[in-house]
Amino acid sequence: TRDQISYFGAGPAPLPTPVIEESAKALVNFEDTGLGLSEISHRSPTANKILADAKSALSILYDFPLEGENAYDVLFMQGGGTGEFSASVQACVGWWVERRRRRAVADLGEGKEDEVIERVRKEIKEELKVDYLVTGSWSLKASQEAARLIGSKYINVATDARKANNGKFGKIPQEKEWQLTDSKKSAMVYWCDNETVDGVEMPSFPESLKGRGEDDGVVVADMSSNFVSRKLNVKDYGIIFGGAQKNLGIAGITVIIVRRSLLALTPKADFLQRLSDVLPSAIPPVVFEFATIAKNNSLYNTLPIFNLYIATLVLQSLVKTFEEKKVSGQEELANRKAELIYDTLDKYADAYHVVPDKSARSRMNICFRIKSRGEGDPGTWDEAREKAFLASAEKKNLMGLKGHRSVGGIRASNYNAVTMPSVQKLVAHLVEFAATG
Ligand code: PMP
C-alpha cells in the first residue's frame, strides 16, 4: 500500500494520499455530478471555481495581493518548466522593447514610426542584455534556450558557478563576484532557485537585486522544485514560475506568478516583427504570451482542469495545515526534515560525502556520494557501494533515491509531501548502511 512506500523521487514526486484519493474520485464522478472532472468544460462554473480557489490559496500562502496597485496575476499554463524558459525571456525582452518604444515616442513625438523603430533598433544592438545566474543544470538550460531564441550576443552569464568549483556545480559564487548588467539596460535577471539535479538552492533572495523598480531588469526565478516550500516576498519578483509535478501536483500544469503592471508593457507583434533583423524570435507563441493568458483567466485554450484540481487541493491543504503560519509553516517542516538527513550524512562523513557546498545545500534535493572503503582512495566514490545502498534501500521500500543520470550518486528529494516518518526511515537506513562494508 501507499503507506508502506517512502518515495524520494525528484519529480514526478509523491503527493499527499488524501489528495490523491480525493482526485481519484473526482476523475470518475466529481461531487456526485455523474461526470469526471476531465470530462467537463474548462469554461464551466465548476472549472472557474477551481481556478479561483487555486489563486486564492496561493495568494494566502505566499501572502501577495491579487487585486489593487501591487497586484500579481496567477497564470496556469502548459509546457512545463521548460516552456517557461522560453516564455520568460520572450516576455521580459518584449517588455524592455516596449519601454524603449514608449520612451522614443515620448521624445520624438507621435507619428514618427520609422524614427522610433530606428532608435529602438539601435538601443537593442547597443544595450539589450538578459542576465543569467548559472548555478546548476536547469539555469544552464534556461540560458541556452534564451541564446537559441534571441541570440547569444544578448545573453550575459553574470555568474557560472562551475568556474570557481572545479568545473562542477555545487557552490554559488558570492554576490560581489556576479557581473550583473546595469539594471536599466538589463531586460531581466534570471535564476533557478533550487537546482534539482545538483542539489543547490539559493540560500536567500540576493541582496543586490532588492528594490528593483519598474524600469529595471525583471527579476525572474524558476521555483519548479522548491515551490511553496519557503517564505518569500513576492513583491521582490517580476515572475516566479514552477512546474507542478514536485511540490504542487502532477505534470501538465505550470504556475506563473507575474506582476500585473508588467503585463501592460506587452508589445504589439507587428512592432517586434519590424525588429526581427536584430531580435529574431522575441514574439512568443500565443499560448506562451503571459498577457494573453492573463486576459483570458488562463482559459485562452483548454486548461487541464483535473491537473489544476490536484494543485488546488494541495494548496488548500497547506493553507489549512499551517493556518496563520502560511508557507513559513511548510518551510519549518521542510527544514527540519532536511536537517535530519544532512546531520546524519555529516555525522557519518567517513561513509558519505554531501556533494554541494554547505553554503548552498538544497533543502529539497539532497545529493550525496558514498565513499570508498578499505583499500579505496577515501576521496573517491564507490559506485558498487552506491548500488548496494540503493538495493538495500529498496528492500526497505525506500524508493526513488538514485541520483540524476547526468551526475550519478544518490539523491533524496525532500518535497513537501515526503513525510517525517519517511525521512526517519531513510535516516535509519543511512545509519545502518554506514556501519557496513
Ligand atoms: N526547472 C527545474 C528546477 C526542474 O527541476 C525541472 C524539471 N525537473 C524543470 C525546470 C523542467 O521542467 P519540465 O520537465 O516541467 O519542463
TrEMBL record:
InterPro entries on file: Aminotrans_V_dom (IPR000192), Aminotrans_V_PyrdxlP_BS (IPR020578), Pser_aminoTfrase (IPR022278), PyrdxlP-dep_Trfase (IPR015424), PyrdxlP-dep_Trfase_major (IPR015421), PyrdxlP-dep_Trfase_small (IPR015422)
Short name of any one Pfam family annotated for the protein: Aminotran_5
Assigned keywords, A-Z: Amino-acid biosynthesis, Aminotransferase, Pyridoxal phosphate, Serine biosynthesis, Transferase
Catalyzed chemical reaction(s): 4-(phosphooxy)-L-threonine + 2-oxoglutarate = (R)-3-hydroxy-2-oxo-4-phosphooxybutanoate + L-glutamate; O-phospho-L-serine + 2-oxoglutarate = 3-phosphooxypyruvate + L-glutamate
CC per GO annotation: cytoplasm
Domain Aminotransferase class V: 119-425
Record-listed E.C. numbers: 2.6.1.52
Gene3D superfamilies: Aspartate Aminotransferase, domain 1 (3.90.1150.10), Type I PLP-dependent aspartate aminotransferase-like (Major domain) (3.40.640.10)
Names of the cofactor(s): pyridoxal 5'-phosphate
Protein name: phosphoserine transaminase
